[in-house]
Please model this.
Amino acid sequence: MLYSNRDNFIISAAGCMYCDPNSLEAIMAGNEAGARGCTLPLRLTKDGIAVLCAGDGFVNRKGEYKAARDLTFEELRAHFNKLISFGQALELAKACAAKLCIDLPDARTALSIRVTLKYSEYLDNAYFCGLQLQEAADLAARYPDMHVMADFDCAPTSVEGLVRAARDAGLFGLRAAPALLTDELCRTALRSGLFLASTETTDIDELRAMIDRGVNFIETERPDLAYSLMPQPDFD
Model:
């Protein structure tokens, strides 16, 4: 790993700069706006191919909804000619030297892309999120070379308890909405060696608070806005 949990990265959200969240354009827009990483929401097709999919499926030009899991890749592409495979998204992210936030619906999706990331020598630049604590812990235990985060969606009863559970499970870190990444949680998690990531926000106060608290991966649709709030290096 070429970075530590004292580093901060602006991560572009799937719909970055108001682009289609299932497109390569969103990754490019984020890179051009100063992001140092991008979020890739993935779903598996019926034949097990991971595709960019911010929901569970797509609506075609006729207004028909098609769930990714119900059709093969070729069948989906017949309905949506701009369907993007994980491999295509990875190649563009590598060209941008971007960190990858892999947003998962389940552990099976992570396993389907692990080999691709490993042989592309990009596994160390990806962190996996979207899983609750137990499922994330099981995945991390099975594949310790993966940077697995646990998502939590409500304030923990005990910050110390949550951090201890994540650390003991061998997790890479924790991800939550900005409001849940409190000063206490950030201090405790970072001191324990965990990494922290946020879900998407464009709120200036939330962005500034997360930068000040040392959140490592800050996800936003407006990387340009977040980047403007980052401390600028002093060359004097």
Remarks:
- The domain at 9-229 is CATH 3.20.20.190 (TIM Barrel).
- The chain has one domain: 9-229.
- The CA atoms of residues 41 and 103 lie 5 Å apart.
- The chain has nine helices and eleven strands.
